[in-house]
Structure formats: structure tokens, C-alpha cells
């Protein structure tokens, strides 16, 4: 009896550790340099009404992730393999865009990590980028890479959220007004909603948690309830960070301060707590960027692992190469802003088509077996697909016009 209890306790701890690893992989992947900048800029523009944007994006994000995580776990297959079963060759197309998009965004993530080290220690951004890449690569070199990655991103998530909450308290934001405007906003910015949804669950982030669960052995119909809870928890963790940053910036701009357009998040932290605040921004930027580097590399490579036995066998070294190429690109050409913008716009269309494909798969017995996907979730998923296709197309047309004008 004691042996059974011990084994059950160890199994429960292991299962919980795996689930939290997937939760934080998705959450920290979405909290990158772009996340910090977008939240700061939109808060300064919309003020307390940005709370409404956050609320709507949280609901849409939950619709997306609960659908995706449940279907992947029930099918016991990665996103690209499910897509290929729905329509032969579709998985290869998804993989191409996700890997290219992940690589492009990882250049920005590496740059953000370099900036964080620059703020903390005064060394050059490029040197900081190399150091950060080395730390990320080391995680995948060690024998128990999966466990080390899970532990690192969980610690990174706790640190960045805790420090941002501290800054929010320092700024004494008008919480009452924020609550009211979250329910009854002065203005509704649809583009801001789509930007937040795309940044939180778009591109490779859509599949980060689900793929991590599969790699950890959490799969099958019996694991669907766990996947559901984990997906919602991941969105809530991301949302806590978003709300904390929103309140921190709101507290600054509500006092009449203006953010530096070159680095709005950094100026918000500095205005909130002086030089200490600026150093805290460095820590938050570094942890956000490095965790995104890890999440982007891990998930992007997971999209090609099933295409070849050799890739599967050597996937850790391909992840390392992915990080190395991102770093080399940043050092040699910097952040290719126009390319990042266009790839980001194209990446916004991955979400609706990927989600739409998985929703079709959810109702095919040859893919999900005896699993019954709730009609309510399907309806919510279709709603997100339609909305994001419309707004994604609008974004691409506008961004392409800006680039080529």
C-alpha cells in the first residue's frame, strides 16, 4: 500500500510538472519584446479603455487554445501531421510558414535579450545577444533538456510577472477607472484586439503548449480534461502579465508623462521607479526575450520533427542551430524591420487557417478516434477563424502597402 501511494505521488508530481511546463512554454513564448512594446504603446494610446481590448483578447485566446490543445491531445499528433491528414500537403505548408515566421521573430527575440543585458550591465547589445544565445543553447545541450527547459521558463515567468506587478504598485494606477473602462470603454480598437490575439496565440505560439504536452507523454482522450485546464491556465498567466504591464503603464501616463517612442516599455519602468525601475525593465526584457527564444526554437523545430526519422533523432541539435542562425542574423544584419513586419502580418493568417483545419479534424474519426469535440467549442472556434481572417487580411494589405509604397 505504501509503495502504491509513493508511486501515485511521484506520478502526480511528474504529471503536474509536465503540465506546468506546457503552460509556461506557451505563456512565456507569447511574452516577448513585442508583447512589452505593444502593451505599452496601446496603453498610452487608449488609456484605461485598453482594458476592454485585453478582456476581449483573453476570451478569444481561450477559445483558440482550448480548441487546439484538446484536439492535439485527443489526436495524439502534432499540428502538421493533423493538417496533412485533413488535406495531404497542408501540414508542409503550415510548417514552412511557422518555421520561417519563428526564425524571423527569433531575430527580434535575440535582440531583445541583448538589450536586456545592455540595460543591466552596460555591455553592447550584440555581446548581450551572444551571451543570451549561449544560455539558451546550453539548456538544449544538457541531457535532461526537457526538464531543464520547463524549469527555466517557469522561473522566468514568475520573475517577470512578479517584477511587473511590483512596478504596477509603484505607479499607483487608477484601478477603479480601469475596471469601469474595461466594461464600458470610451473607444473600441479592433486592430488592437487582433494584434493582441495574434501576438498571444498566433503563429508557432498556437501549438507551443500542445506540442510540449505530446512530447511529455500527456495524450489521449483521458488527458483532454487536463489539456483544457492547462490551456486556460496558460492564457490566464499571460493575461496576468498583460494586466500588470497595462496598469503599470497606465499609472505613468495618467500622471501626464509621455513614453519614449523608441523604447516605450523601458521609459514606463524608468518613470515609475527611476534607475531601479530601468534595471527592473532590463531583467523583465531579458527573461521575456530569452524564454521566447527558447519557445520559438523548440516549437518551430517541432513542426518538422515528424517529417524525417533523422530530424527526430537529432532535433535538439537542430534547435541549437535554429538559435545560432537567429543570433548570427541579428549580429550581421540587425533586426530586418520590414521583413519582420511583413512576416508578422503573414503569420497572423496562420492562426485562422490552422485553427480551422484542426476544427475540421476534430470531427473526423480517423484522426481523433472516439473523442467527441464539444459543439460549443467548435462554434467559438469558427467565430475566431472568421474574425481573424477578416482582420488578418486587412493587416496584410495595409502593411504591404506601407512597405512597398
Task: Write down the domain tally.
Answer: 1
CATH class category name: Mainly Alpha
Radius of gyration in whole Å, from Cα? 21 Å
Total helical segments? 18
In terms of structural class, how would the helical and strand content be classed? mainly alpha
Question: CATH topology, which one?
Answer: Amino acid/polyamine transporter I
Which runs of at least 5 residues are low in confidence (pLDDT < 50)?
1-14
Beta fraction of the residues? Answer: under 5%
The beta-strand count equals 0
Q: What percent of residues adopt helix (DSSP H or I)? A: over 70%
Q: Write the H/E string, N to C.
A: HHHHHHHHHHHHHHHHHH
In short:
Pfam families: Nramp. This is Mn2+/Fe2+ NRAMP family transporter. By secondary structure, the chain is mainly α.
